Amino acid sequence: MAGFSVMDTLFQRTLDDLIKGLRLQLIGESAFLSKALDEIRREAKSTDPDTKSAALLKLTYLSSLHFHDMSFAAFHVVELLSSTRFSHKKIAYHAASHSFDDSTPVLVLITNQLRKDLTSTNEFEVSLALECLSRIATVDLARDLTPEIFTLLASSKVLVRKKAVGVVLRVFDKYPDSVRVCFKRLVENLDSSDSQVVSVAVGVFCELALRDPRSYLPLAPEFYKILVDSKNNWVLIKVLKIFAKLVPLEPRLAKRVVEPVCEHIRRTGAKSLLFECIRTVVSSLSDYEHAVKLAVVKIREMLVDDDSNLKYLGLQALSVVAPKHLWAVLENKEVVIKSLSDVDPNIKLESLRLVMAMVSESNVAEISRVLVNYALKSDPEFCNLILGSILSTCCRNVYEIIMDFDWYVSLLGEMSRIPHCQKGEEIEKQLIDIGMRVKDVRPELVRVSRDLLIDPALLGNPFLHRILSAAAWLSGEYVEFSVNPFELMEALLQPRTSLLPPFIKAIYIQSAFKVLIFCLNSYLLRRGNAASSSYSDQLVPDVPGLFSEQDSVGCSDLASCDAPVEAKLDEGFNPRDLNQSFGGLSVEYGGEETSTCGQASASASFKDSFTHESITNLLNRVELAVVPLTRSYDVEIVERARNVLCFIELIKPQTPDCLVQKEESSDTEEAEASKIIKLMHDAFSNDLGPISVSSQERVSVPDGLVLVENLEDLETICGDVQLPSLNSFSHGSSHFEEMAGVSIPIFQSKEEPGPSNESTSLLAEHRKQHGLYYLPSEKKDGDYPPANDPQLQANSNDDEDLAKLTEQLLVSKKKPNHTKPRPVVVKLDGDQVPIAAGPHSQEDLLSGTVRDVLLGSETKPTTRSSTKRKGKEKLNVDSTTESKENLGDVEKQDQGNSSTRKSKPNTHSKGRRHRSPGKKGDEGEENCQKAKPKSSGRHKARQRADAPLNVVSQTPVIPDFLL
Amino acid sequence: MIRAVIVINTQGKPRLAKFYEFQPVEKQQELIRSVYGVLSSRAENVSNFLDAESIFGPDTRLVYKHFATLYFVFVFDSSENELAMLDLIQVFVETLDKCFKNVCELDVVLNYSKLHTVLDEIIFGGQVLETSSTEVLKAVEEISKCLFCPSPSFCLNILFEGGLYTCSCLDWND
């Protein structure tokens, strides 16, 4: 460079100067850095290698610790690599390995330089090149330099040899064909007299074996020898890791290995080795009782150790052993539970996992009690972890371990009240799910919900809103189990509900609606029965369709046993501000309640309270509370509030007087009111069941509907308009048309974007433009019913009628829309479907790819692939030949079983017919010998399959195999 | 294999960062920040493990050791033993200690190249290469000799860089 003077070279800042300048920070860090970078840019172009190297060193420093991009200097790095000076080379290699990646264009320029340095006589230059190669080798580099690396694998210098062994990992990874060249020498290094070389070689095999253990089974005798003979803990740890992978593939190997491993456990003083042995035993040798026992003894020692690291790892080992040997965890139960209050978050977490592993039907209540107590004491984060794991454990497999749902539901209620609880969503989900699945628990659910709803304090906690919405929904849906519906109504309409988000508020209103209908209906019933002066039990048969027999029995049973509780709760409730604010009703009925609860049946007692007066009060009360809501900004709320008001208006003219007077006189007018009430009641009284997760999949695609796989362009379409969610189209529409002019986006937008005229036209335009994403218009309404999957409808009862549709229209969106009553926990086959389906398709995909790759490589075994991707696949091919062939065979034999278990040797020949027909191929040959004459390996072929077994006794197998 | 070796001081400044799988610098910075974020919130006298999977992805583990003002962090996967990695941190620090005679943060700050030379002798492309600090030291000394092999222009450089220019540096002795 012309402009580059000697002075520049002389007064160039070195890295030291740069660092010191940074520390001084005279002009501020960023200013200093940008100045330094400018300098570096200039200096890097210098023709003087010293200046260039100093600049690159500084640049690498800035890139590595101040995260400045240095890709612009890639070519300068290449230039400097060719310097003859070691110090320059070192800087250049450091910069290269720091900044080059597979996409660096100048990489192609360094092949020759690397080759030169790899063959250098200076061992440090060789190590520099190897070090760099181990980080940046690409497919091309790996391919071109394989011969040099092959030579270095036998280098007499230990420093070089161990690095050459190390670099093999990256080279194999990038260029699998190099396996054929280098594998043999790599294996020889396992036998090296130098322990460092052995250590690195074992490390490389450990990495390889973790990726594809099966291919390395034939080397088991080598590893075994190391396991028995080596005194180096690092090596032993790696060998144990290899065996942990090999043993599950070859059970006979386990028998061999288990003793030496136990021996190490007994003897070693090194904790790292001890832990590795324990891990090997618990993960791979867990069938050997005595080994596991020994390991568990050692685990216990770790658990009581003061070192929190050992404690943590001990707990980890326990959780590995837990699935197969739960006794090991139970033996250490105290330590585990005590660890829940450890100061170390890792330990707490691990012990929580273990505690959850111990949970079973018999102890779930006990353990949950303990955990909830811990949750109360813990910091918010851990508290929620505890709650989360209780929830997920209990709901596993459709509440498999829950025997007593009453208990569980009250536990959910209790969890909701834990101050740090943030699991609202999950609890909400489970409450509703249980409500729909488990019929018998509904009375308890209603009780728990009532307790939650009635407490005005809970409304102030946003985390609880979701739970409250579930509680509101449940108490509305199952209001027939309520001990005191009036009280429920109070709770649902209390002023603090204004704190709720709109969509939950809407659920509250809907539930209040249901409660109102229930009260009116009960009142009518009671009056109808007044003539015959019979109470309680006689009510029921008179009203077909209100309660099924079973329900009424359950209801009154529960109500009666709940009566004392109710009375108590009521007292607790009275002083609350809720009561003061709308005193009237509660006091009245509360009083009545307490006076009657001593009677035989509480159900009788609340039926008693449906007097004319109370009903009128109730109607007034509801009207008063709901009217202001019609001015809400949220359409959901307005919508529902209007539903309620319209209903009240409809029946009100008749109620005040008619309901009283008609007791004696004509039924005509009354009939109309009661007809409406009955109708509404019937609409609500249908049971709702859970919906199968896979039900949507079962909807057959309608003719003419084109489903686009790639929905990317949908984003641009939705840029200006809100995305209509396709599956919730139909029902809402008729309602929202009424709400003309309101175009505020709805919280949980599930309706078409624009209800107003203007937006309707917009919508129409949009539909025209992107018709692809709309359902055909004539199908819009007819489309939804099939979603209630035909299969389920078949076994659900005959409830496919108008009532159901009404119910779907009126109930909140959360409800699934088909009924499916069953006595205990309702399970749908769909609940399991996704789990079963996932792995299947995955496996098919995998074996499919594997087969493709196999075919490709078998026809052209020496293809030099130049793209990285292909190279990677090819590694698989080479190193997993055995399992792949197996897969291929399985396919041929139409067994349809994609297990990776090794089959008998006779299947091996098929995969490689093209090579030497009639001869049994030898995997060893595949792995390391492809490039060599193949006559050598063949006579051992039949032993290959059982090599691991014989190895120890028949040492000759190995040399033959490797020849 | 070992995925990364990171040394951060207690203020969150990276003092050494080596990733054995290529990461763009922005990503490196982000990773180091997240690691520091978790480290700094941990109490003393708790275990030396950290949940790494949330930061580095699946099948990663992280151990760290806290020495004076520095955190030494190793990130690795299931083919390494956790306790062995803790030992390896010990080996690394011991080697530095022997190298710099009572190593302190400033040594780490000022000896960028040497630090890497030491580390490269211990870990090679993510593989553990050498676990004896004496062996490492021996190799590092050999390399230093190589670095300072006589060459005319180099001597000139030494003269100017080591003498003239650095005289003006204020904190030469700190």
How would you describe the overall organization of this protein?
The complex is a heterodimer of chains A (963) and B (174). Chain A is an all-alpha fold. Chain A is 65% helix and 0% strand. Chain A is built from 53 helices and no strands. Chain A is elongated, with a radius of gyration of 38 Å. Residues 533-605, 660-666, 722-756, 777-823 and 832-963 of chain A have low confidence and may be disordered. Chain B is α+β, with helices and mostly antiparallel strands and 174 residues long. Helix content of chain B is 50%, strand content 20%. A 5-stranded antiparallel β-sheet of chain B has the order 2-1-5-4-3, with helices on both faces. The relative contact order of chain B is 0.13. At the A-B interface, helix 2, helix 4, helix 6, helix 8 and helix 10 of A face strand 2, helix 1, strand 3, helix 3 and helix 5 of B.
CA radius of gyration of chain B:
18 Å
Strand order of the largest sheet of chain B: 2-1-5-4-3
Count of alpha and pi helical runs of chain A: 53
In whole angstroms, the N-to-C terminal distance of chain B is 37 Å
Broad structural category of chain A: mainly alpha
Which structural class fits the helix and strand makeup of chain B?
Answer: alpha+beta
Number of helices of chain B: 7
Radius of gyration of chain A: 38 Å
Shape annotation of chain A:
elongated
* Structure summary, number of beta strands of chain A: 0
Question: How would you spell out the order of helices and strands of chain B?
Answer: EEHEHEEHHHEEHH
Percent of sequence in beta strands of chain B:
15-25%
Q: Which residues of chain B sit in consecutive blocks of at least 5 with pLDDT less than 50?
A: 151-174
- Residues in helices of chain A, as a percent range: 55-70%
